[in-house]
Design goal:
The complex is a heterodimer of chains A (about 600) and B (about 120). Chain A has about 600 residues and is an all-alpha fold. Chain A has one domain. Chain A is built from 23 helices and 2 strands. Chain A has a two-stranded antiparallel sheet with strand order 1-2. In chain A, helix 3 packs antiparallel against helix 17, helix 6 packs across helix 9 and helix 13 runs antiparallel to helix 14. In chain B, helix 1 runs antiparallel to helix 2. The chains are: A mainly alpha (about 600), B mainly alpha (about 120). The interface between A and B is large, with 57 and 42 residues.
Chain lengths: ~600, ~120
């Protein structure tokens, strides 16, 4: 049988194997030599990468459906639990496995001493992401969300001797868990209304029903957890704290795939469960408002940072906002653009985090001001950093640029031309901030940043390094080069094959998903066109790079500019100070924002329905 | 089932969240998180509850039920939720203990490492 049940063993295997590997490592870890502690989990993650690649190839012909324990639907009714793999889910699973492999490889030399529980946690984290991406059951989504969460909190706070790491992990844990509980409450409300937990069944029970307050409440609550994970403003405050303190290889997994998975969860639930009942125009407006706000907040905060990992974290917030904007168009083009953008961004951002980790291990700091000019003797690193920054800004032919270009064209086609300005500005500003770091550290450009300039409301980049390295070992350089090459390949292949628009067509056609799950036969989807480079897309990509170069130059010579343009600086610094003070590191404030966010989303979705 | 259970659930979630917002102690924050989660237990159990229904336990061999029973699915969900909560609470409490060891304080207002 094509699609349907063939290869139905594959999705559960990709969840079970990392969990078994983690259990094995924890059981025998203390007797293993260091090289085996490193090699076994890397091999497991590499194996999962191969399996998920097979799954992705398989899903090109239709959904792969697994009813666990053989509890298949009879006469369109089922009490079973289902995993449904489509190209987007399988692609996310592949991306998470590939990033985990590279992160584990990088960890060989990153940690001078590390125990097996680090590797076990990475494998559990991987299992959570696989399950979250592949499951078709809403309650399972919550369970895998929490599995991802619990291992992520532990990985963030792994440096138990560092109090700021623990504080970051605690903030992350409380906010994410609270979000997850609200998601669970939403799942409960949906179950109360329909008696179903599987997304295909929920689709069937809700489709065409009149919308009422309970459905809206359930939607908003379910979404909350995913938006927290997706770092969408005003749910995003945990992200910069967690990224600033987590080890660099862990940040790779956070920024590269965990945050996009949050956005994925929100859109997956919308498309499969709610698309038939909630009006698309309202959802589109709600997502666009949230997306634009997080993109702008992330970009502005990114430019204002001197702690390099925090700077990269704010750029992730900005890009997650852009992904949400592209997906919010609720069109096949916009979704294809977002998918390509996520793939390209994962490579560029992950490479940059690994480079930041290398800086930490070489020079014992990730503070842009303290590191001024200290990287002058490096040979390869400056080039890699500049390439990563330009990829982030959207230089063609990187995958980020193609994803951005397709999203912008989709936005213009959908009548939201202002979105293309947001895309260009945000990618330019974040790319420029990263470029400024390279200019200061590796090239020693501009005046030396004044000492003692750190202000009361600012984080500097002081962090304890895990090991002191004289030079960059191959196991740390290879993942960085591989990630940047991957971003490049995504841009080249994405423009020549229709894979991404095909995947987007699967994602945005819930009918095929439900049909495949309930009847175990592969549904067919048709995609409209294949995404490709256009003159407009290329042009906007180069405009972004120009914005990035100007931002970087302005940043490097900021002290000179500040003297010339003093009145302008005074006007700009007040809102900036307020924005910084909002990121207070106080978990209570973050919870207050979370509740505000729930109210805002509720108002955005619910108020237009009141007539 | 009256609306009472739902109101209690709603109240618990809000009270727990408000507790975290106002908290001056990280242990207190973590316990407030558990309070908020208890709200989800009450919600789930209220959904499955029926007046004068018995537990969903059948004899062996199973026969067609002749009486109404409470919904076992939400009870299974609640159990899963309890397990999740135990893990997360234990982890967060361990972190709070460690913060106290290193910082000598549990007041989030005095932890000023992560800002701006």
């Amino acid at each position: 049988m094509p699609g349907g049940t063939a290869f139905s063993w594959l999705p559960p295997t990709t969840v079970a194997v990392p969990i078994l590997g983690a259990a094995l490592l924890l059981a025998v870890g203390r007797w293993l030599p260091r090289w085996l502690t490193d090699a076994i989990p890397t091999a497991v993650a590499a194996g999962i990468t191969v399996l998920t690649a097979c799954l992705l190839a398989r899903t090109a012909d239709g959904h792969v459906v697994t009813w666990s324990g053989g509890w298949r639907p009879t006469h369109g009714f089922s009490v079973g639990i289902v995993m449904v793999s489509d190209p987007v889910g399988a692609g996310a699973a592949l991306l998470s496995a590939a990033l985990a492999t590279l992160a584990l490889l990088y960890s060989w030399k990153y940690f001078e001493s590390v125990e097996a529980h680090y590797h076990a946690l990475v494998l559990l984290f991987l299992a959570g992401m696989q399950g979250f991406a592949l499951t078709g059951d809403l309650f399972d989504m919550f369970v895998f969300f929490e599995l991802m969460g619990a291992s992520a909190y532990a990985l963030t706070g792994m440096k138990v001797e560092d109090p700021s790491a623990l504080q970051g992990a605690l903030n992350f844990g409380i906010i994410n868990s609270l979000g997850a509980y609200l998601t669970l409450a939403g799942v409960g409300l949906l179950y109360a209304r329909t008696g179903n937990l599987g997304m295909p069944q929920l689709h069937q029970s809700l489709e065409g029903r009149p919308v009422d307050a309970l459905v809206v409440a359930a939607f908003v609550l379910v979404l909350t957890g995913f938006l927290v994970k997706g770092a969408v403003a005003p749910f995003h405050y945990w992200l910069d704290d967690a990224h600033a303190v987590a080890p660099a290889p862990v940040c790779v997994l956070f920024s590269g795939i965990m945050v996009p998975l949050g956005v994925y969860g929100a859109l997956r639930v919308y498309w499969i469960v709610f698309a038939g009942v909630l009006p698309g125009a309202d959802i589109r407006r709600a997502f666009l408002v949230l997306g634009v706000i997080s993109a702008l907040v992330g970009a502005v905060m990114c430019v204002g940072q001197r702690h390099i990992k925090r700077l990269l974290a704010f750029s992730t917030i900005a890009h997650a906002g852009l992904f949400l904007c592209a997906l919010a168009l609720l069109s096949e083009d916009g979704t294809a653009g977002a998918l390509l953008y996520v793939a390209g961004h994962a490579g560029a951002k992950a490479a940059l985090f690994l480079l930041a980790g290398l800086l930490l291990n070489r020079f014992g700091s990730v503070d842009e001001h303290g590191l001024y000019g200290r990287g002058r003797s490096e040979r390869l690193m400056p080039w890699l950093w500049v390439l990563g920054a330009l990829a982030l800004a959207g230089l063609p032919p990187f995958g980020t640029a193609l994803g951005k270009a397709i999203s912008e064209e989709a936005a213009i086609k959908g009548g939201d031309w202002y979105l293309s300005i947001v895309f260009v500005a945000v990618s330019g500003l974040t790319g420029g901030a990263v470029l400024r770091v390279a200019a200061r550290i590796y090239l020693g450009l501009g005046p030396r940043p004044r000492e003692g300039e750190a202000q009361a409301f600012e984080s500097t980049g002081e962090e304890k390094s895990e090991a002191r390295l004289r030079s960059a070992p191959a196991t740390m350089v290879v993942p960085i080069v591989a990630l940047l090459a991957g971003t490049l390949v995504a841009g080249v292949i994405g423009g020549s094959r229709s894979a991404f628009s095909h995947a987007a067509a699967y994602f945005t056609q819930p009918g095929a998903y439900v049909h495949a799950a309930m009847t175990l036969t592969a549904g067919t989807v048709s995609s409209v066109r294949q995404p490709n480079w256009t003159g407009l897309g290329l042009g906007l990509g180069f405009v972004s790079v120009a914005v990035a170069l100007v931002t970087a130059a302005a940043g490097v010579y900021s002290s000179v500019l500040a003297d010339r343009l003093a009145p302008l600086v005074r006007v700009g610094s007040a809102p900036m100070r307020v924005l910084r003070q909002l990121h207070s590191g106080h978990v209570g404030d973050y919870v207050a924002w979370l509740m505000t966010g729930v109210a805002v989303v509720g108002a955005l979705v619910g108020l237009p329905l009141v007539r | 089932m009256s609306v009472y259970g739902y109101l209690v659930a709603f109240w618990l979630v809000l009270a727990g969240s408000f507790g975290i917002v106002r908290s001056r102690d990280l242990i207190h924050s973590v316990v407030c998180l558990s309070v908020a989660q208890s709200g989800t237990y009450v919600l789930l159990l209220s959904i499955g509850f029926q007046t004068k229904a018995t537990p969903p336990v059948y004899g062996s061999p199973p026969s067609t039920p002749t009486r109404s029973v409470t919904d076992p699915v939400v009870q299974a969900m609640t159990l899963t939720d309890v397990v999740v909560s135990a893990t997360v609470t234990a982890l967060l409490l361990a972190m709070a203990v460690q913060i106290h060891k290193r910082h000598g304080t549990l007041d989030p207002d005095e932890l000023r490492a992560l800002r701006g």
